[in-house]
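Tokens for chain A. Residues wanted.
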């Protein structure tokens, strides 16, 4: 067994309920940071067909998960940024005809991201077979993803602006290389050196 794989630590916050309502900032990178979804030219994002597919499938996520809202997002050549809001527990009728919050139907953020990764992988494979899209190495997405719990309005504004500005700052983006599958989002520039105390 690969000791590095066996000893991987979770980057999720221990003890946090990822089914609860709130805003979450998510970053997903392609396997080996391969540029598959388009290019940035003079600060402008130009999506190819796979990149457009990623956009479409993200927008359709609300059909699958009724208790979410999608906020700012950006498909980049080798990664994807988004703010997702879980708006609350689903209400169901129990056998005694009482309305109660359901925990059985609540999906975690990880399950939602996993579903998105799975759906887009299947669609991309179809594109490879039928439209000659560029092949990927083993997996479309890297194994893990990065998330951050957005705790206040100021944090939401900073992160939303960061997402919007991503194409303009592409040349200096820490994810704009193919340095394996290390997620470096915590060191990104959100406009404040002490972002961990604010976000």
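Reply:
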């Amino acid at each position: 067994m690969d000791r590095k794989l066996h000893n991987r630590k979770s980057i999720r916050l221990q003890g946090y309920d990822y089914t609860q309502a709130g805003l979450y900032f998510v970053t997903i990178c392609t396997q080996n940071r391969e540029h598959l979804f388009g290019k940035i030219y003079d600060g402008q994002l130009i999506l190819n067909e796979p990149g457009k597919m990623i956009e479409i499938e993200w927008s359709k996520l609300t059909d699958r998960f009724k208790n979410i809202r999608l906020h700012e997002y950006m498909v980049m050549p080798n990664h994807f940024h988004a703010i997702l809001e879980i708006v609350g527990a689903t209400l169901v009728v129990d056998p005694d005809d009482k309305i109660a919050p359901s925990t059985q139907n609540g999906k975690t953020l990880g399950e939602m991201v996993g579903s998105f990764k799975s759906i887009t992988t299947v669609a991309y494979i179809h594109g490879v077979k039928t439209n000659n899209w560029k092949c990927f190495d083993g997996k479309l997405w890297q194994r893990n993803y990065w998330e951050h719990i957005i705790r206040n309005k100021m944090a939401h504004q900073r992160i939303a602006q960061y997402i919007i500005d991503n194409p303009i700052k592409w040349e200096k983006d820490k994810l704009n290389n193919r340095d394996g599958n290390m997620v470096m989002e915590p060191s990104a520039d959100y406009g404040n050196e002490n972002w961990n105390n604010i976000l």
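The beta strands are 22-29, 38-41, 44-47, 68-75, 79-86, 90-93, 99-102, 146-150. The two ends are 38 Å apart (CA to CA).
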